[in-house]
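hey so i finally got around to running both of the ones u sent me last week. sorry it took forever, my laptop kept dying halfway thru and i had to restart like 3 times lol. anyway pasting them below in the order u listed, first the sequence line then the structure token line for each. didnt double check formatting much so if smth looks off just lmk and ill redo it

first one:
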Amino acid sequence: MPVMTYREALRAAMVAEMDRDESVVMLGEDIGVYGGTHLITDGLLDRFGPKRIIDTPIAEGGFTGAAIGMAMMGLRPIVEMMTWNFSFLAADQIIQNAAKLRYFSGGQVTVPLVIRGPNGGGVQLSAQHTHSLEGFYGHFPGLKVVSPVTPHDVKGMMLTAIRDPNPVIFLEAGALYGTKGEVPEGDFTVPFGQARVAREGTDVTLIAYGRQVNLVLRLADKLAADENISAEIIDLRSIRPSTSERSSSRSGRRTGRSWCRSSGGGSA
């Protein structure tokens, strides 16, 4: 399989869907001419033009609301948040409208919307750019909240997200954009709600998601080298729909111990 960076795999998924489906459009600050703050959308303006790669003003509430309306009318918008902290300005649109319109309408209206961008810290962007918001958005019914860690998963889960008829909160980590991994060629999807065994073990189960998975894998290496402890690592992948019950419970019963590492820290 070809090796790609997380950034390349993410871009490849969005390009593939824009090639396949003309209803897929993108909105966000600096995503067109500038190519995105993290260069995720570099080159897409030349490829798809300004009607599908839409540079927006610095107005998260405005362009998120516009994207919700576009989704209600049959398009499939992808909104880039330059950083997930900026989504606070669009929280009313996301929580009160995008998440609830299908319920309010008795299923007559769907909102096939993806809101994506870097979430959490690790890239020295100061306190107002480094909140981890998976716990916040994960509390609201109507939103699907996912946090892929590998290039394989970021491509497969982005394809799933764009095709989903519901709004998806797609949480990336800036510290992962340059990481590399194998990514299958062609069309493949990674379903939401299915955890991944990132490493098999017998003595303890360590549960994580997003960037924390890589940190926990390093911890497992240290446990094996220093204490002869075999740790099994569960990558939740999704916060909502929940993925922890079956995979984590089975693993915890097998090893007899479990520990969860969230973006903000650890909990027993």
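and the second one:
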Amino acid sequence: MSGDAHVDDPAGTSPPRVSIEDLTKYYGQTLVLDEVFLDVAHHEVVCLIGASGSGKSTLLRCINQLVPFDYGTIRLDGVPIDDASFGKTGLRKRIGIVFQAYNLFPHMNVLENVTLAPRKVHGAERRAAEANAHRLLELLGMSAFADKYPEQLSGGQQQRVAIVRALATDPDVLLLDEVTAALDPELIGGVLDVIRDLKAQGMTMVIVTHEMGFAREVADRVCFLEEGRIIEQGPPSQLLVDPEQPQTRRFLQRIIDAGRL
């Protein structure tokens, strides 16, 4: 897993890994994303926080074209994501996404779930796809479960498999949408450990999370969204401790009152 298919530019002259400009999205008459601007650098981890309905998950889905948007531009390494050079499947290969619902195929074992997209969508040879899958499963502590079916796994184990599946195409960017939200508290730590390891390996990630302690630890930058706009952003040591905007302060106070920060 490289997490980086391109040579980095230490001088900083290369474009951001992900660049979002003026992103606007409506669902019917409802404005969900309101002129969002966001750059994500190579190897950077950005956490998106905010109340439910603030547009965080929609923003993630726009980044890899799971959801169409109305206005604006999203670029990957300087290339618009709708550029023909990506083809039909190239963008999904380079931008992986993991949801809070594991979405594993119940009739396939772990190995089959992980190798499905590399083989069927991206044309990888079976032996190479399986070798890569075994390598990733071992890295994430799941090598003993390759022949198991989803119903034989705990929720935390299923979420690890979902992360392995997203990594199996060797993406440049990993999007994580509330990946611990459906887990029992005792299972959350193991999944967060996996994400910490990915950060240590240099994976560029955009993470939607309600785990404020985790955001404080793993994020290079935290963005607070409200009503489809990024109200404030900054390093977690600043934004989560001494935010500038009253909307951010009110949100964090509710989190503190709930004992989650």
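quick thing i noticed on the 2nd:
The first helix runs from residue 56 to 63.
anyway thats it, ttyl
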